[in-house]
Amino acid sequence: MATGVQRTVSDQRTVDAVSVRGLTRRFGDRAVISDLDLDIEPGQFVALLGASGCGKSTLLRILADLDKDVSGEVTVARRRAVGFQAPRLMPWKKVWHNVVLGLPGKPDRDRAVAALTEVGLAHRVDVWPKVLSGGEAQRAALARALVREPDLLLLDEPFSALDALTRITARGLVDELWQRHGCAVLLVTHDVEEALALADRVLVMQDGRIGYDAPVDLDRPRDVTDPEFQRLRAELLARLGVH
Amino acid sequence: MTTTPERTRVQPPPSAVETVTLASERDRRPGRVPRWVLKTISPIALIVLWQVLSSVGVLDTDTLASPVTVAETAAGMWQDGSLQSAVLTSVLRVLAGLAFGIVAAVVLATLAGLFRRGEDIIDAPMQMLRTVPVIGLIPLLIIWFGIGETPKIVLVGLAVTFPLYINLYSGIRNTDSTLIEASETLGLGWFGQVRHVILPSAMPQFLTGLRYALGTAWLALVFGETINATSGIGYEMNKAREFFATDVIIVCLVLYAILGLVADMIVRGLERGLLSWRPAFSGQ
């Protein structure tokens, strides 16, 4: 099935964080992704929109090396981290232990504390994940991703399970962390406003490939009432088939 | 000229609302009987009833010795040392059997749980063998191992292996695949995943299996010791049968009960210590 797969991992920062050529992923007879090309520059914040079931999460899973049954050429940054829709913390490890899980060497508590402080969870270092609220758990997952100092951060609808107020705070936090860490981000979302509030570049996935690719040249922090913001929002919604 | 009819607001009388009291001072009122008192009343009442029936002669000593006689017998057995040595022998047998059983179950369940190949080779025979009643193996065990310590330890070991194996195996197989996936993105290798994700996730079910296994271990021991034993609690019990010494039999039964309770307490302590991360419902 997976014939002609070429998967290389790049080390140099000068190369793109993501480089995809002719990627195809089939589920049975149906090609969810067909002949897709995509490049993401280092440090670029890219939002990937698309109707539900269009394959955007599949693309993210492929870039995270969780889905290996593909054909085409996929090159991604060696240092990458993933944030899922659910926090996916190990319930049997204290929060700080979760943050540094998988890092080489002995669990470094100081490093975990620093990462947790960055996401505003300095007071939650020594608790079990079960006592965290939904927003706190998602922030801990973000700390776990960023402590790996990734060149590429893959986020799969990380805010969709949060309530509206928590979502706004979490969005602001991601913006702030991205500006500080300078890693490339691929944010899969179905929320047009979220995409426009955060991204340098917005992609819309259609028929298994990138159907729309446009830069977002708005000043940060983004203003929802800005006419240009409104125009882009209307355009994207039209692209997504919502009028 | 038209006049709009005056709107009337219908207001229900306050008494129409039915209320329930969810919290009140009454709940905290002192003078309520504490729960531990309530819990101990009925066992004590039963023992008192038993003593009364014995004293008035309804229960004769050959049927059932009275609680007082049982207590005196226990004291006597303690003084001549036969109680301690019987308990020690039995406990050592259970510990030895448990040690073998735990090692066997952990090795087999880990191989079957982690590897598809292991499952094919190990799981089918284990599922078949577990339907054999362990007690039914006693004649074979005697033929194979004689009447010494070995058949008793093997019997306990076998009784422990199956419940532990089944629980640990299903615990391993029920590991949340999204957590495995997450650990993969964190850079954990296969060993890391086993150590940090799969085994901790199987721990609750392993401990459930351990608790159940301890129960079956005592059961197997009772059988093992009442047949062809020359020491231990079961042997004392069997000897007592020949003399219609119901008091000794009761002392032995109480000893089994106490040892079973202690074993259960140890596992529950382990659960409290090892599973404090669990967001489980702990009862009302």
Features:
heterodimer; A: 243 residues; alpha/beta; Rossmann fold; six-stranded mixed β-sheet; four-stranded mixed β-sheet; 10 strands; 31% helix; globular; disordered N terminus; B: 284 residues; mainly alpha; MetI-like fold; 10 helices; flat
Describe this structure in words.
Helix content of chain A is 31%, strand content 27%. Chain A has helices at 56-63, 95-100, 109-118, 134-146, 164-181, 192-198, 227-239, and strands at 5-10, 18-27, 30-40, 45-49, 71-77, 80-83, 152-156, 184-188, 201-206, 209-215. In chain A, the strands form two sheets. Chain A has a six-stranded mixed sheet with strand order 6-7-8-4-9-10, sandwiched between helices. A four-stranded mixed sheet of chain A has the order 1-5-2-3, with helices on one face. In chain A, helix 3 crosses helix 4. The longest helix of chain A is centred in the C-terminal third of the chain and has 18 residues, at 164-181. Chain B is mainly α and 284 residues long. Chain B has one domain (69-272): Orthogonal Bundle (MetI-like fold), CATH 1.10.3720.10. Chain B is built from ten helices and no strands. Chain B has helices at 35-55, 67-79, 82-114, 116-129, 138-145, 149-173, 177-185, 190-226, 233-242, 246-274. In chain B, helix 3 (82-114) crosses helix 9. The longest helix of chain B has 37 residues, at 190-226. Chain B starts with 34 loop residues before the first helix and ends in a 10-residue tail after the last helix. Chain A binds chain B through residues 64-66, 81-82, 84, 86, 88, 90-93, 101-103, 128-130, 144, 148, and chain B through 178-179, 181-188, 192, 196-197, 200-201, 203, 276-279.
Report the mean per-residue pLDDT of chain A as an integer.
90
Number of domains of chain B: 1
Instruction: Name the CATH superfamily assignment of chain B.
Output: MetI-like
- Supply the CATH superfamily name of the domain at 11-90 and 150-239 in chain A: P-loop containing nucleotide triphosphate hydrolases
